[in-house]
Amino acid sequence: MVVYGMDEADRAVDRLFQALADATRRDMLRRCVRGELSVSRLAAAYPMSFAAVQKHVTVLERAGLVTKERRGREQLVRTDPDAVARARQALDALESAWRARVDRMSGLLAEDDDGPDTGGGPAHARDWKGPDG
């Protein structure tokens, strides 16, 4: 689904969560949090081609979750702690918005429960006399 009118910050959050939506990329991120790893060392941990691992790393890099640095023949991958903090902030903002919505719904339901007792149930149910009445 494409949402029009998104700013760059929204698109960055989308890239972030698209990258995190894949279990392999989340695992790669966890491994890189422990310390920088070469792409070839990452590739050794997964039953996929080296090219597939490179593609996963590229998705993480485009999302800003990792950075790559060439040292000699190797590309070292390390987690960007600021990007992980941005993911946390985005989740916190979503949580706050949903909690506010739930609180508003709870308030409306409480107001409804405090209203006058009209015999319970909808009006059409109260007015129904049954088959004999």
Give your account of this protein's structure.
This protein has 133 residues and is mainly α. The protein is 61% helix and 11% strand. It is built from six helices and three strands; from the N terminus they run H-H-E-H-H-E-E-H-H. The chain has helices at 8-20, 23-33, 39-44, 50-62, 81-113, 123-127; strands at 37-38, 66-71, 74-79. Strands 1-3-2 form a three-stranded antiparallel beta sheet. Helix 1 (8-20) runs antiparallel to helix 4 (50-62) and helix 2 crosses helix 4 (50-62). The longest helix is centred in the C-terminal third of the chain and has 33 residues, at 81-113. It starts with 7 loop residues before the first helix and ends in a 6-residue tail after the last helix. The model has no long low-confidence stretch (mean pLDDT 83). GO terms for molecular function: DNA-binding transcription factor activity. Residues 108-133 are annotated as: Disordered.
Summarize the structure.
With 133 residues, this protein is mainly alpha-helical. 61% of the residues lie in helices and 11% in strands. The protein is built from 6 helices and 3 strands.
- Rounded to the nearest angstrom, the distance between the terminal CA atoms is 54 Å
- Give the oligomeric state of the chains in this entry, treating copies of one chain as homo and distinct chains as hetero: single chain
Give me the Rg, rounded.
26 Å
Output the number of helix runs. 6
Structural class designation: mainly alpha
Order of helices and strands: HHEHHEEHH
Which term fits the overall shape?
elongated
> In which order are the strands of the major sheet placed?
1-3-2
Query: Total strand count, please?
Result: 3
Mean pLDDT: 83
Q: What proportion of the residues is helical, as a percent range?
A: 55-70%
- Percentage beta strand: 5-15%
Low-confidence stretches: none
Major β-sheet profile? 3 strands, antiparallel
GO molecular function: DNA-binding transcription factor activity
Pfam families: HTH_20
Protein name: ArsR/SmtB family transcription factor
InterPro entries: ArsR-like_HTH (IPR011991), HTH_ArsR_DNA-bd_dom (IPR001845), WH-like_DNA-bd_sf (IPR036388), WH_DNA-bd_sf (IPR036390)
